[in-house]
């Protein structure tokens, strides 16, 4: 993403050619937002830990959780191995093989600060917090701005549950998310100092409170793997993937529209709203179609990633 910042790495339409990409193996989840915290995985075999390791992981308790019949569309899920080894997580690497760079990342203990314009600000421990949440699995389509896509089952709970805990004030119009920044554990931060770390994102409060907006604690019936944002990430299925921040450490309810990471670098390419829209091309490539990462099939992109009936009213549609 280039703008007024020198030497900023540009996000290409797929960092590696398909034939050079390791099959996405470790979309290994981690237990309740919390449970996922601990297992390192360097590659599919390491990420998909054996039963004995799962038993030792506090985040693994209770998995797999029931799948919601309301979010279980017909059709095949993206191959788990592929989805696990084709990830964007620039704090670790600019390449897609994030699973090879996460072994030093420690996700326990993990504190999350929730505050801003709320009645009950709090700092919560990931394990304690998620263990108290009623978790379920939902199958969502996921669309990257780079024009690739996948279909995955996320375990978690609605973001609205967070608001129920802290009780936002009337003047709170937006929600800001800040993610982990641990240079000693996340090598991409030191390798790319030109980026404005830590990663930060934002939503309008009505977007955040929408029933589809999901706090994911796991995927594919297991706690989140580190390459997918352990121990807790956001999933906003009708927006491009960079609007779903990973490894969240702070949530703020604010009055003014917050700046976001990629918007700060190049607002023309990555505006605040960033809804999936085949009719609005990226300045450097078309968004009319998308490539399914496991099959390579090229399919037509749907507006709002196919969730228009549920979210179109948020935008006057």
Could you characterize the architecture of this molecule?
It is a single chain. This protein has 317 residues and is α+β, with helices and mostly antiparallel strands. The chain has a single domain, classed as Sulfite Oxidase, Chain A, domain 2 (Alpha-Beta Complex). 14% of the residues lie in helices and 21% in strands. The protein is built from 9 helices and 12 strands. The chain has helices spanning 44-47, 51-56, 80-83, 126-131, 160-166, 187-191, 205-208, 261-265, 308-311; strands at residues 111-116, 122-125, 136-143, 148-158, 174-179, 200-204, 214-219, 222-223, 233-235, 248-254, 289-292, 298-300. Strands 3, 4, 7, 8, 9, 11 and 12 form a 7-stranded mixed beta sheet that branches. A hairpin with a 4-residue loop joins strand 3 and strand 4. The protein starts with 43 loop residues before the first helix and ends in a 6-residue tail after the last helix.
Features:
alpha+beta, 14% helix, 12 strands, seven-stranded mixed sheet, 9 helices, five-stranded mixed sheet, 317 residues
Element string (H = helix, E = strand): HHHEEHEEHEHEHEEEEHEEH
Tally of individual domains: 1
Average the pLDDT over all residues and give the rounded result: 86
Briefly note the CATH topology name.
Sulfite Oxidase, Chain A, domain 2
Give start-end ranges of low-pLDDT stretches.
1-55
**Class by alpha and beta content:** alpha+beta
CATH architecture: Alpha-Beta Complex
């Amino acid at each position: 993403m280039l703008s007024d910042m020198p030497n900023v790495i540009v996000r290409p339409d797929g960092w590696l050619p398909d034939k050079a990409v390791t099959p996405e193996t470790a979309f290994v989840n981690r237990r309740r937002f919390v449970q996922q915290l601990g297992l390192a995985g360097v590659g599919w075999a390491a990420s998909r830990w054996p039963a004995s390791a799962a038993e030792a992981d506090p985040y693994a308790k209770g998995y797999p959780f029931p799948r919601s019949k309301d979010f279980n569309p017909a059709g095949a899920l993206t191959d788990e191995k592929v989805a696990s080894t084709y990830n964007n997580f620039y704090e670790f690497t600019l390449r897609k093989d994030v699973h090879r760079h996460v072994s030093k990342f420690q996700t326990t203990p993990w504190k999350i600060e929730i505050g801003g314009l709320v009645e009950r600000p709090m700092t919560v421990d990931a394990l304690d917090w998620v263990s108290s949440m009623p978790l379920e699995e939902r199958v969502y389509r996921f669309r990257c701005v780079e024009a690739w896509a996948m279909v995955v089952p996320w375990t978690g709970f609605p973001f609205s549950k967070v608001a129920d805990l802290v009780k936002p004030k009337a003047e709170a119009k937006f929600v800001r998310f800040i993610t982990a920044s641990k240079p000693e554990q996340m090598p991409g931060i030191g390798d790319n100092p030109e980026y404005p770390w830590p990663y930060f994102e934002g939503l309008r409060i009505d977007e955040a409170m929408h029933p589809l907006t999901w706090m994911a604690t796991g995927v594919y019936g297991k706690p989140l793997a580190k390459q997918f944002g352990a121990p807790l990430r956001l999933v906003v299925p009708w927006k491009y993937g960079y609007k779903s921040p990973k490894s969240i450490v702070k949530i703020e309810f604010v009055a003014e529209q917050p700046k976001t990471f990629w918007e700060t670098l190049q607002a023309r390419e990555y505006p605040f709203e960033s809804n999936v829209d085949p009719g609005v091309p990226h300045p450097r490539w078309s968004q009319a179609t998308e490539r399914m990462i496991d099959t390579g099939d090229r399919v037509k992109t749907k507006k709002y990633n196919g969730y228009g009936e549920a979210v179109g009213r948020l935008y006057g549609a």
